[in-house]
Every structure is written in structure tokens, then in C-alpha cells.
Design brief:
Number of strands: 2
Helix content: over 70%
Strand order of the largest sheet: 1-2
Number of helices: 8
């Protein structure tokens, strides 16, 4: 943490504190689960705001969040979420962490933003469609709740995880789309159990932070390109 010094602007600090306070309030009011839901939510939202800075520490926190979220998903019979985060997001976060550490920019507090060609986006689309189709039958076999939405979550999660590894500014946009899917998914769970309101609120906060992350990475990319041209 000393090596990867994280410096928040006032706006970023406000967004982080607002997210933290909102999540805690929703947990106190609605959640009847153990402390694991709250801990996972706080770690997740902190990881996102750090990722928005392009700091590798964020990927380390994503690994921890993925494990905790997988446990929560298992309890709710969202096997698609469990398999996605434990079998894909967590391992991809490990790979992304290595990639970010190997591609520092400046003093190492920030990763070097990568530009992806249009042809690679086509490859991502083809692979994600194939992967999603396979997961549909796997999740159907396990009688996964809200099958279609859970399957679509797998697709958005894969695209987001891949773009994170490739250091593309669009990874935050993909995660924002995944957040919308998860808000719907956990919102449906709230119809049967209001304790999941806290999880739904958590992903709403994730959505706001991921949108900011996309804006932040676009600024980073422009700044890095400008400095590259100047040098």
C-alpha cells in the first residue's frame, strides 16, 4: 500500500464515502444475513473506486470480493453468479493483477491504459456468445434461479473481466452493464426476501462507481497519450 500510494480527489472521496454510508444504512435496515454481506459490499465498492484510479490494489480487492460474493450467491441459489465469480472473475482478477503490475505508468501508482483494436472486440463478442451458450445449459442443469438473467450476467462478467485484463478503459463500462443486470437479478430476489435489498443497493453503488471509473480511465488515456506525444 505504501508503494502503490492511492490519492483520492475530493470528488472521489465523496463518491466513496457516499457509497460506503449508503451500503451500511441498507445493511442495518434490511439485511438479516451475517456480516459477510456487508464486508463483501464494502470491499467491492472500495475496489471499484481504486480501479478507477488504475491502481493494482483494486484488483487484489476484487479477488477477495469475488470469493465472498460467490458464497452469498450460493446461499441464494444463484449458481451462475457463484460459478462466474469463483470460476472466472476471481482467476481473471489474478491475471489482471499480474498484467497491471507488469504495465505500470509513471511511478507505478497507475496502470498504462491499453488501446484495443476493433478486430479484438469482434473476437470478444464471439467468445462471449459461445461461453454464454455453454453456461446456459450448465445453469439450467443446476436449476438456477432467474436463468435468463443469470446467463446474461455471465456474458457481461466475462467481457468486463477480459477488458480489465487487457487494460481497456471500456472494462468499467462493461462492469456498469453487469451492475444493471445484477440490480435486476437481486431485485427479483428481494420479492421473496427483503434481506437482499442490501445486496441490490450495493450493486446500485457499484453502478455509480463503475460509470465514474469509465470517465476516469478515459481521462487517464488522454493524459497518458498527451504526455507520450510531448515526450
Amino acid at each position: 500500500m505504501k508503494k502503490f500510494n492511492i490519492r483520492f480527489t475530493k470528488k472521489e472521496l465523496f463518491l466513496w464515502l457516499f457509497s460506503i454510508i449508503t451500503i451500511i444504512i441498507s445493511f442495518v435496515l434490511f439485511s438479516r444475513d451475517g456480516i459477510i454481506t456487508l464486508v463483501a459490499s464494502l470491499i467491492g465498492v472500495t475496489a471499484i473506486i481504486i480501479n478507477a484510479k488504475g491502481n493494482p490494489v483494486g484488483q487484489l480487492l476484487i479477488i477477495i470480493f469475488s470469493i465472498l460474493y460467490g458464497i452469498i450467491s450460493f446461499k441464494c441459489r444463484y449458481y451462475g453468479e457463484m460459478l462466474t465469480y469463483l470460476g472466472m472473475t476471481a482467476p481473471m482478477a489474478v491475471i489482471a493483477l499480474i498484467s497491471w503490475l507488469r504495465n505500470p505508468y509513471g511511478d507505478g501508482n497507475e496502470v498504462k491504459v491499453n488501446h484495443i483494436r476493433k478486430k479484438e472486440f469482434l473476437y470478444i463478442l464471439v467468445i462471449s456468445v459461445i461461453l454464454t451458450t455453454i453456461f446456459y445449459f450448465i445453469l439450467d442443469f443446476f436449476n438456477t434461479a432467474n436463468l435468463i438473467i443469470s446467463t446474461f450476467s455471465v456474458m457481461t462478467s466475462f467481457v468486463a473481466a477480459y477488458l480489465t485484463f487487457r487494460r481497456s478503459a471500456y472494462f468499467s463500462l462493461a462492469y456498469a452493464l453487469n451492475d444493471i443486470v445484477l440490480v435486476v437479478l437481486w431485485g427479483l430476489a428481494c420479492l421473496n426476501d427483503t434481506s437482499y435489498v442490501s445486496v441490490t443497493v450495493c450493486f446500485m453503488m457499484f453502478l455509480f462507481n463503475d460509470i465514474y471509473g469509465f470517465i476516469s480511465w478515459n481521462r487517464m488515456e488522454k493524459r497518458q497519450n498527451k504526455q507520450k506525444i510531448t515526450s
